[in-house]
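pasting for ref
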Amino acid sequence: MIRIYLPVTHFKEGLISITDEKARYLATVLRCRKGDELIVFDGEGNCLKTNILKVDRKEVCVEVLEKFTCDTESPINIFLIQGLLKGQKMDMVIQKSTELGVKEIIPIITERSQPKETLKITRWRKIAEEASRQSGRSVTPVVNEPMHFNDCISSLTLKGLIFYEEGGIKISEAISSLVTRHSSLSVIIGPEGGFTKEEIAIAKENGFIVTTLGKRILRAETATISAITLVQFLLGDMG
């Protein structure tokens, strides 16, 4: 069944009018027709089963048939702290980490990242929204405004793991020493070129465990997807 995201403020009893780019998407891309059923979710765990009454490129009008709660979320809340990547690599990380179930994403500016990429925050939020819709999630992850590495690390109350290609303990050992099942943790991944030794030292001073994905050096986007997958396998709803 087709799903689409709308903020909670759009939810009303009886009828919902879907306009602008979402109407165009339903009409021209998904080719919805009168009589089709549509699931509308608010990104906060609430869903509406609706029936389409009218479709055109400017407006899609739906009738609410049923309201229900939907929970497809992971039992572990993963907060991804991602060093800014160039171009489409960051787009991929936002998309895939959303599909894998991260709760929140904080882009960070490190010594080796590209500050100009901070201008794409609106794009990243749309990517997260679409990835939530496509993957059947009931919650859309928050994509925060970018922060500088030092500011982010020092302000985080939720500790966790920082991945470093030049050393660290095994991820299974790191997780065992940090959290238990159905908990929360931060996962920090570097940009192209990884973190500097100074940044790793700052993270350790602030209570983060340095861990590794193995002897091979992975591309930055591969490292993020691999790390989130492993954390979900060890603590979440995979495996």
